[in-house]
Every structure is written in structure tokens, then in C-alpha cells.
Amino acid sequence: MARKMLKDGELEEETNFDYDLFVIGAGSGGVRAARFSANFGAKVGICELPFHPISSETIGGVGGTCVIRGCVPKKILVYGASYGGDLEDSRNYGWELSEKIDFNWKKLLQKKTDEILRLNGIYKRLLSNAGVKLFEGEGKIVGQNEVEVTQLDGTKLSYSAKHILIATGSRAQRPNIPGQELGITSDEALSLEEFPKRTVILGAGYIAVEFASIWRGMGSTVDLVFRKELPLRGFDDEMRAVVARNLEGRGINLHPGTNLTQLIKTENGIKVTTDHGEELLADVVLFATGRAPNSKRLNLQAVGVELDRTGAIKVDEYSRTNIPSIWAVGDVTNRVNLTPVALMEGTCFAKTVFGGQPSKPDYNNIPYAVFSIPPLSVVGFSEDEAIEHTNGDLLVFTSSFNPMKNTISGRQEKTVMKLLVDAGTDRVLGASMCGPDAPEIMQGIAIALKCGATKAQFDSTVGLHPSAAEEFVTMRSETRRIAAGTKAKKNL
């Protein structure tokens, strides 16, 4: 024990810890918090499971879900799949292509693996350059200020820390149906040895819609099975309908209002039965049915950390748990489960605890992107959310048009844009776009909404011509006005 002198002359004991901060989990949020805390002068340790593209309770890797088995490899596959449609479209632009165009899945897969290995190494170097000590092994909490790390050889190391941060993320879940062991999750989908010619996907969120686009773009037959009327529950209903039309237009078979009841292995593939009595044959069945927080093996109950019914760690608005020395960021808290949000939470944590700048994460106007083909991107409220949050009338502006590229290629696939405006204040409350380059465009729109932009300011902005993006500053006539007091529709 060390002692420090208080103002009134009394002595208070102060503990000497091995670390000022120990982080469990070296994904996006954990690495950001560790690096920024170290930059503020903290002595920081961090632990992460050994690397593998497919995660489990005992394997993971520095970089976490986003880098190794999430956003980055997914986007690489989306790029690869997009060439399928582009090659078709290129013929009307004068490109002479043979009728047969081969796709080499294994080549793309190796390129993807090379990239995530490169990024895994970069994340390790970022930690090292910041002076953060990295331990490879499984971490758990054994006291309010103590962490135990089990190394690869089974050796257990114990370290004390003034603050402990949990950033262990989440993991894909499987539905409890007969034959569920025959299906795969997004982890395995990103590392399949053979390209599947016939695929069935259960789910209608980000992962389901994105993999439907990926596999269809590469030539697979795709059946997308989901319980609601439209995919992407929680997004704007009008934009969800646009995505559904585009998926069908690209040749994906949609099965709304449907669930899977059983998977059976046969000589011809996996036989999939639905609750409507349909039978589908597949080489691969993907379960895209949600994720659960990685909190089971952390020993949290033993030290009194409170969890919700899903296993997510409960935190306050500064990311602190009910135990003052223990904090949590990212998907393990099940707040807004996006990589940039975990980065924001990690930054705010470091500023609050070590930077002398108490900072709360701001969850307003977070932009989202679904990398379907073409992609959907939104920021701010959906129409139903805007109705709930507006006291007066709501103005809806929409634009639907053929992108210039499609007018020559002949592809029948419209871009759709939408703005939601508070009639009383003229403030833009939400923006949506489904079409090529939507995420790239929406990042700029997000800045405008963060600054409180009005429709008049959108209208006074000079358009960038010729571009699809200029439509956002040329939607002068309202499509409809929704009167104050109107009830929002039930999300389909």
C-alpha cells in the first residue's frame, strides 16, 4: 500500500495496481479505448483470444468481429459480387464479353484472408506503438480490481487494475430447430471452402440481406426466408419495400411471413422445410438470426456486475457498470451495435477516465448502411419515428429515378431518396437512400443532420452535377404531408 496526504492532514491508503487499465477484448472498441487511454498516460494491458477467422469461446483475434469476421471481409465479398452485375451491364457500354464468365471463389477467399491477416497485424502494431501490453489468452474477472488471463498453454496470469474495461463483443446465434447443426452462421459463411450453388438464408437483417446479395451476385440460387412482411425490420418501411423489390429484381427468391422448421441431410444436399410446407434444397443454410453478447465466460456474476435478460452488461451513460471499477463498451452492452459506435464509446471512456473530460456517447443521428446490392443507407429518423417525435406536421420529400448508369445499361433498378422535415421548424429529421454509392453519400448528409440543417439549407446548396447525390438538394415539392397527431404504422 502507498499513502497519500489529504488536505486535512489525514493519511489515506492508496493501492498500487499492476495497471491503470486492463481491457478484456481487443476488437474495435477495446483497442480504441486502450490506445487512447495510453495516450493520456495510463499504463494499459489488454488481452484477446488467439486468431482464427471463425470465432468460438476460445478463439477470436486482435481486431475483433469487424476486422476478422464482419464488416471488412463482408465488404470485400460485396465488392466481389458487385462485379457480376457490372459485367452484365458493361455490354451496353461497348464491352465485348464472352457468354461464359468464370468466377473463382477460392481466389477471392484467399485475398480476403490475406487482408484480414494484414489488418490483424496492423492492430497489434497500433497497440504496441501506443505502449499497450498485449496478452494472448482468455480473460475473466476474478475481483473488482483483478483480471485472470489463461494463456494458450493453460498458464494463468493474474493482474490487478484500477479500472477494468470489458469489450468482448457478441457472437452469432443459431435457432433451436431440428437439424440446426447442419446450418452455418456468418462466421463460416465468410470462410467457406467451396462456393455454394444453392443457398437458403433464414433472417432479414443486415447479415441476411447482405449475404443474399453476395451469393446471388456470384451466381448462387438464393432463397431468403423471414418472418415479417418485409426485410430489415426497424428501418423505414418505404425503403424496406425498395430493398425487397431490388432483391427480387436481382433474382433472389423472397419468402416473407415464413420460418424454417427442420433441416435434413440428404444425398442431394440439405433439405429445408418451412412452416408453410415448402421444401427447399440447399448446399448451404445460413442462420442470420441475431447475435448475443459475449459475457458468459467473464465470471461477472461472481463480482456482482449486473446483466440484462439477454446477457448484455448494464452500464450508465458513461459506460460504467454498477461496480465502480468495471466498465463496458461495444456490442457486449447491446446499445447500438455498430463498429463506429464502439469506437465512439471507447473514445468517450478514455476521455472520461483518463483524460479529465467526462464524455457521454451521443447516439443521435448515427448513420447506418446495409451493403445489399445496391446498398441502403440512412441517418436520423424513419418516417414512423419522425411521426412519434414531431409535435406538428411532418413533410415527406421523395425522389425515384433511374441512375444515369442504368439508362445506358438497361438495368431496371431505380434509386430512391427520401427526406423527412419538421414542418414547424424546417429541420431535416431523417434521410434515406437506396441506390449505388448510398453509404458514401449518406456520410456527408449525416454531417448536415448533426449540424441541425434545415430543408431551406438543403435547397440553397448547389448540386454536384451530374451525380445522384444532387437529388438531395433538388427535392423542392413535398410528396406528402402527415398531419400532427397521426399514429405511426406498425413496423411490417
Automatic annotation (TrEMBL):
Disulfide bonds join C66-C71. PANTHER family: GLUTATHIONE REDUCTASE. Homodimer. Residues 366-475 form the Pyridine nucleotide-disulphide oxidoreductase dimerisation domain. It comes from Crotalaria pallida (Smooth rattlebox). This is Glutathione reductase. One of its GO terms (molecular function) is glutathione-disulfide reductase (NADPH) activity. The keyword NAD applies. InterPro entries: FAD/NAD-bd_sf, FAD/NAD-binding_dom, FAD/NAD-linked_Rdtase_dimer_sf, GSHR, GSHR/TRXR-like, Pyr_nuc-diS_OxRdtase, Pyr_nucl-diS_OxRdtase_dimer, Pyr_OxRdtase_I_AS.
